[in-house]
Design brief:
The chain is mainly beta and 153 residues long. The chain has two helices and seven strands, in the order βββββββαα. The chain starts with a strand and ends with a helix. The model has no long low-confidence stretch (mean pLDDT 88).
Length: 153
């Protein structure tokens, strides 16, 4: 579960363990999506009046394509996540590292912040292998399969 009723946090911190699905609507069309899901663990607690703090980690596998030869590539992704959530009327609510509480003011949704952190950690330009030769810029042949005709002539 990655969405919480903040009224339950008045009783103390809660342990977080859940998955952010690759099919979740939080992902945008051009995002480096996970192959199946992002697994999230951590702790969510109060951090003063109208503020909440999440500290945890996430792991998953990103789907993409090699930046040189365009074959499908999967890359392991993991990272630490530390988020501060605040009411919209909080004095620091406009800062980029502070995430807003839900529209109702009683819901805290970790998914948008986790998406941002995932995108920072996922490789933007993955390679299928470090020595990938890509395509010939002249004829478009896959140079990983061998030299192309225009190089041989």
């Amino acid at each position: 579960m990655l969405s919480f009723d903040i009224r339950t946090l008045s009783q103390g911190a809660v342990q977080v363990e859940g998955d952010l699905s690759a099919a979740d609507p939080v992902w945008l069309e051009d995002d480096a999506r996970p192959v199946s899901h992002v697994h999230v663990t951590g702790r969510l607690s109060g951090a003063g009046s109208g503020r909440y703090y999440f500290s945890g980690a996430f792991t998953g596998t990103a789907a993409g394509e090699c930046r040189r030869c365009l074959v499908p590539v999967e890359s392991a992704v993991s990272g630490q996540a530390h988020f501060l959530y605040a009411d919209a009327d909080d004095e620091n609510a406009d800062e980029p590292d502070v995430f807003p509480l839900g529209d109702s003011g009683t819901t805290l949704d970790l998914r948008p912040a986790l998406r941002e952190q995932w995108l920072l950690e996922a490789p933007a330009l993955p390679l299928c292998r470090p020595d990938c030769k890509g395509f010939c810029p002249t004829c478009g042949a896959d140079l990983n399969a061998g030299p192309c005709a225009c190089i041989l002539s």
